[in-house]
Structure to design on (477 residues):
């Protein structure tokens, strides 16, 4: 009975010191080419005696060429690669992470999530300005409260407030650019939202207020302008297009915005602000637990992008968003889980690449960049991803509990989280109490994420038992 390719591969690896001793696998026309970590662990005589092996050529640098013949070498090499991947937990984790990332990318390719991504692309370019103005606003407030440099505080306030006063124009510009219109026309239509003269306009029996509807009104106005512009481009003769299309694009959506969209968007914006306040005041701990615990899955599914307009609306209305500090706790749970994984497997020499991933990704995780830890550590392992969510839920509940007591924690900009959010914190009790509550939430997330992962994040059979990304068969020879 002739040995199968799998039998030959398993026998070869057994005499090479096991899959963990093999570092590279390749083949040419007739030879399987491998490199091993420890040549002393190789049984070369036994290797030559494996059925199907026609010869062995070794070198001092730990490389081996195993002659199998042109009809056999490709099939045996494929089996060796699967067995090596299955026998190296760190490589298996990396492959599993890449597979999960690709699965999520394909799953996110739905019309709804594509629309959310395009919506996010309207606001993401605004984040640098939001961060810069948020930091200046915090610095200006600090100078005003302490009385230091009294002449500088009003200047900083002007610099930080100017962008927010005109943010509707930038939203309109980006919306038209993203959805196929002329950016400056989108900005022109959205500008009516913040124009002081709208106070003279009456809609639904009441005078409009400059800024009514905020970024939501600007977004709707620019979307309508884009549709009108594209409709005109296909119907207006070329000789008149340069005159008629811009005029109609500003006129029709502008009137609709004044006599409908601003009022409707104002109602929605007010409901968002009132809802966020009531949510935290009445069920802050529960809301924080749910938001902090579910944010990592939302990020994976791409649904977190729907929150960007809500954050921006709250910042425009109240000066800060109370939701972002709660959501930022998810990153704290992720860091705690990664530290627990490191503590459990730090003595496992077969997981050196996993340990390197954790060490290199932790600084970014502390600053709120969680993707390296998600796709490189917790998600491929499976259970630590769930315990990381538990840590995020605990941190969110901590911050939400203080919101129920009247201590609100907010962020003056979106984008940063983790420790990078401290310069952007704002609240109704002053900077020090706000920073203390947020810091306490981070520490709670770290601690619960660590303990939950250390105690419940591993199978009894071993510290690392991810699903195989390759489906390779396990064997012992």
């Amino acid at each position: 009975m002739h040995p199968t390719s799998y039998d030959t591969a398993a026998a070869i690896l057994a005499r090479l010191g096991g899959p963990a001793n093999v570092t590279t696998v390749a083949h040419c026309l007739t030879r399987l080419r491998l490199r091993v970590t420890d040549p002393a662990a190789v049984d070369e005589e036994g290797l030559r005696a494996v059925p199907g092996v026609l010869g062995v050529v070794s070198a001092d640098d730990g490389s081996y060429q195993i002659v199998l013949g042109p009809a056999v070498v490709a099939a045996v090499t494929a089996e060796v690669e699967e067995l090596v991947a299955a026998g190296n937990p760190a490589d298996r984790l990396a492959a599993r992470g890449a597979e999960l990332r690709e699965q999520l990318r394909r799953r996110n390719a739905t019309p709804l999530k594509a629309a959310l991504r395009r919506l996010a692309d309207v606001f993401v370019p605004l984040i640098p300005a939001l961060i810069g103005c948020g930091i200046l606003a915090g610095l200006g407030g600090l100078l005003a409260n302490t009385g230091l440099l009294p002449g500088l505080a009003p200047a900083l306030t002007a610099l930080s407030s100017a962008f927010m006063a005109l943010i509707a124009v930038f939203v309109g510009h980006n919306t038209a650019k993203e959805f196929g219109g002329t950016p400056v026309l989108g900005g022109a239509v959205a500008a009516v939202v913040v124009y002081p003269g709208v106070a003279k306009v009456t809609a639904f029996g009441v005078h409009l207020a400059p800024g009514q509807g905020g970024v939501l009104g600007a977004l709707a106005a620019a979307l309508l302008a884009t549709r009108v512009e594209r409709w005109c481009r296909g119907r207006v003769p070329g000789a008149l297009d340069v005159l008629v299309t811009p005029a109609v694009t500003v006129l029709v959506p502008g009137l609709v915005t004044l006599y409908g969209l601003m009022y409707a968007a104002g109602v929605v914006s007010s409901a968002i602000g009132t809802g966020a306040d009531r949510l935290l005041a009445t069920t802050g701990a529960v809301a924080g637990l749910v938001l902090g615990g579910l944010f990592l899955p939302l990020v994976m599914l791409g649904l977190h992008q729907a929150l960007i307009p809500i954050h921006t609306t709250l910042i425009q209305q109240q000066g800060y968003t109370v939701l972002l500090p709660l959501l930022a706790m998810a990153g704290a749970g992720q860091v705690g889980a990664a530290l627990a994984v490191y503590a459990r497997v730090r003595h496992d020499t077969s997981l050196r690449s996993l340990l390197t991933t954790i060490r290199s990704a932790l600084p970014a995780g502390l600053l709120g960049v969680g993707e390296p830890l998600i796709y490189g550590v917790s998600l491929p392992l499976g259970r630590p991803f769930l315990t990381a969510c538990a840590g995020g839920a605990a941190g969110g509940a901590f911050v939400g509990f203080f919101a129920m007591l009247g201590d609100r924690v907010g962020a003056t900009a979106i984008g940063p989280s983790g420790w990078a959010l401290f310069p952007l914190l704002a609240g109704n009790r002053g900077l020090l109490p706000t920073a203390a509550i947020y810091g306490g939430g981070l520490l709670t997330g770290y601690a619960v994420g660590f303990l939950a992962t250390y105690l419940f994040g591993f199978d009894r059979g071993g510290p690392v038992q991810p699903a195989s990304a390759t489906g390779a068969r396990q064997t012992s020879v």
User: Anything to note?
Assistant: The first strand starts at residue 22 and ends at 27. The chain is about 65% helix and 5% strand. The chain has three domains: 5-88, 111-279, 299-456. The longest helix spans residues 238-301.
